[in-house]
Amino acid sequence: MSIPAPLPSLPSLPDKTRKRLALWDAYRSYQYLEAGQDYDAFDVVPAVGRVPGSAIEWSDAVEERARDFEERHLVVSAHDHLSLRPADPHRFSEYRRQGREFTPYEGIAHSGVDLFFDGGPAAVSMIRAHTSWDWDDAVSDLAMRQADWAHQSLVAPVRTLEDAQRARAEHKVGVVLTLESATPIGNDVDRLDLLYGLGVRLLGLVYSESNQLGSGLADTGDAGLTVLGRRALRRMNDLGIIVDVSHTGDATALDAVRHSSSPVVITHAGARGLWPTPRMKPDDVIRACAESGGFIGIEAAPHTTITAKHPRHCLDSVMEHVEHCLDLVGPDHVAFGPDTNFGDHTAWHRVFAGLFGKDDAEPGVLPPHDEVAYVHGCENPAESVGNMIRWLFEHGYSDEEVAKLAGGNVRRVAAAVWER
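The structure assignment produced for this chain is given below.
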């Protein structure tokens, strides 16, 4: 295992962070077992300080205002990946095969986020249609993750808004279990009930490549929801599982809005009007989700939310997508969904592009843009949402507006779906 980076001096840390570090108490995933005997030990990336000197320095006034805001509000990330990656990204498949992904407790403790919607362990590799991730794998991943969480004091599984408020009051970090695709249910809608029983409270219909429910954004044709997809959507509405169309095709997303009796959300994407890739959403899909009562969470995974004005992916380009969506649908329908992880995200993408091909093929020729080793200001879940909040304050947004983007809109949708 890698040696964690030294912590900053305690006086420089927010009160929230110091309380969480005390709860964390240096616990490492699966330490109730013996590494090398009960499971294979992997060298994983550090959860804090992977890229030295990458932190953004804000003015004292902005930093003080942001810290006060984070103390007073339940801050939410609509989509991040709370799992540590191997230091060698080429060993990822080997790491995944043993079914024990490490939770980055130290990084979670350093974030200002109170509630994470966790995209699931290794969601990209497992959900691809041409991998062997099946129902047994999905259940195993969900159960194994919670077995580890049961042996520590920092992370609290969240199934209701009351759970989230209780976790925050106890200085813990709440985590909502989600899956980016419904592929593992096969053609058995009753399996949605089982996912709900295992704690899943948000579910993507499709992950990029078409499945039995509908079409994915990586495919050339889009016929919308299938008959099975409509049945599954109704069951999700009845159970109280939030419907996510982040990786569906456009027609499938619009079909989901038409047939859903609950808000439909985009947890992690950006505006295609700013960057023309299928991974971004067109204005009509963003509007449709907003009109359903849902939101769009703006993501920051490397080489996604770029803009012509900011061809080098960074916090400013991410926030240009935020402002585009604010202009389009207003502050009641925009959220933060960084889609980041603790590890070399760019190297990880390269490995999977080599194994499976890209899932966001560029339509035509994109404007010139730079490749980056990481997104400055959004390198991992410990810093992305906090920097988005600080950027908004620096650019004149009010506490009321920031409160909606930093958690209020997600909580409103959760209340509408989970408590119906």
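Interim note for the steering committee: The domain at 16-43+58-418 is CATH 3.20.20.140 (TIM Barrel). The radius of gyration is 20 Å.
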